[in-house]
Amino acid sequence: MFTDLPEVIVYPEVQTKTEGENVTLSCNVAGNPAPTISWSRNASPLNTTGRISFLDGKKQLTITNVNRVDSGEYRCVASNSLGNITSNVATLNVQCKYIVLCFKTEHVVSMPSL
Fold first, then answer.
1. CB of 93 within 8 A of CB of 47?
2. What's the CA gap between 81 and 33, in Å, rounded?
3. Which of 14, 37, 91, 113 could share a disulfide with 58, CB 3.0–4.6 Å?
4. In the beta sheet, which residues pair with residue 73?
5. Does the N-terminal peptide bond of residue 12 adopt cis geometry, omega within 30 degrees of 0?
6. Tens place of pLDDT for every residue, the chain, 114 residues?
7. What are phi and psi of 89, to 5 degrees?
8. Contacts for 86-91 with beta carbons within 8 Å, 24 or more apart?
């Protein structure tokens, strides 16, 4: 019986989305024993939440109704009993749906009361 370190064979890709769209990042791995897949965003582990889901043994990460807080660096990690390997970074850029509103909310300055 042969054993193989985990290997990422399909890497997640850089994507640009507009707020409200859905995004799917893919990662395919190989190894023996079969590796498990986990995901991270900005070096923090990702888990299933209301908008984040995983399909096909975590080979696909889907985020529905993306917003700007979802922007960041995503990676998949393949792990088995022989070790683990981390994919290259796939940057997700989420653009504002309405430029004027984004500008106003990002540049609000509070004035001291007199």
1. no
2. 7
3. 37
4. 91
5. no
6. 567 899 999 999 999 999 999 999 999 999 999 999 999 999 999 988 899 999 999 999 999 999 999 999 999 999 999 999 999 999 999 998 876 556 555 544 554 555
7. -75, 135
8. 86/8, 87/8, 87/11, 87/12, 87/27, 88/11, 88/12, 90/11, 90/12, 90/13, 90/14, 90/15, 90/25, 91/14, 91/15
